[in-house]
Amino acid sequence: MNPTIELLKSHRSIRRFTDQQIPRELLLELIRAGQAAATSSHVQAYSVIHVRNPANREKIAELAGGQGYVASCADFLVFCADMKRPTEASERTGANVVRGMTEQLLVASVDTALMAQNVAIAAESAGLGICYIGGIRNNPHAISDLLHLPEHVYPVFGMCLGYPAVDPDIKPRLPVEAILKEDAYTEDSEQVAAFDEAMHTYYGERRGGNKDADWSRNLTPLFDSKLRAHMRDFLVERGFEMK
């Protein structure tokens, strides 16, 4: 064990922040740390929108499903998968660029997630709290219009940043035996059943909580309907044709 591993294992989503502002230079260092993440073929297929306008923050909070902490956190970032920059750079060399490939969507999305997670870890190492906001994909057209996102760029998720005003419990994770499989995929229903019991206990005992739920039941809203069915058409419209 070392401090880095301990930091990674101590992650909690923070949704209440103090009024303390994040120094500009620290914010820039977080972005630089994000840029140090692994990137496919050095493409760096991401852009980050720092949303400072209070009215826009309020609008995004509404569009993301009424998540008020988008407006109340010290800083709010929108991480965008960006194939505009690298394809245009290649085009300027005289290349006959092919756009809209499924692999380009995957590369840009993975690059963006890796970059954002570096930002999150760097932020937590500096005493900040973070919360990812996938809810911006509830209304990706409106978010894109609000942030003037061009074709071949799409908003993947947002991130709230600030100094924590709360100290929530660490939420349990699946047992490593369910995740780490040796040589081939193996079934993990026993580990999932045990994890459901652990999560039921967690929800019943956590501070301020009396939730009667477990991991499997919490997944139901994600899979018993067509969640964000608009995303495929939206991505195609943005130039990610998935050819």
Which percent range describes the beta-strand content? 5-15%
Structural class: alpha+beta
The helix content, as a percent range, equals: 40-55%
- The helix-strand sequence is HHEHHEHHEHEHHHH
C-alpha termini separation: 45 Å
Number of domains: 2
Q: What's the CATH architecture name of the largest domain?
A: 3-Layer(aba) Sandwich
**CATH third-level topology of the largest domain:** NADH Oxidase
Strand order of the largest sheet: 1-2-4-3
Q: What is the top-level CATH class of the largest domain?
A: Alpha Beta
Question: What low-confidence regions span 5 or more consecutive residues with pLDDT below 50?
Answer: none
- The CATH homologous superfamily of the largest domain is named NADH Oxidase
> Overall 3D geometry?
globular
Query: Main β-sheet, in a few words?
Result: 4 strands, antiparallel
Query: Tally of extended strands?
Result: 4
| Global Rg | 20 Å
Map the helices and strands:
Blueprint: H1 3-9, H2 24-35, E1 46-51, H3 54-63, H4 69-72, E2 75-82, H5 84-92, H6 102-125, E3 129-133, H7 140-146, E4 153-162, H8 176-179, H9 189-205, H10 215-223, H11 231-237
Antiparallel strand pairs: 1-2, 2-4, 3-4
Helix pairs in contact: 2-6
Pfam families: Nitroreductase
Domain Nitroreductase: 9-163
Protein name: Oxygen-insensitive NADPH nitroreductase
What does this structure look like?
This protein is an alpha+beta fold and 243 residues long. The chain has two domains: 3-168, 3-Layer(aba) Sandwich (NADH Oxidase), CATH 3.40.109; 172-225, no CATH class. 45% of the residues lie in helices and 12% in strands. It has a four-stranded antiparallel sheet, with helices on both faces. α2 (24-35) packs across α6 (102-125). The longest helix is centred in the middle third of the chain and has 24 residues, at 102-125. This is Oxygen-insensitive NADPH nitroreductase. Residues 9-163 form the Nitroreductase domain.
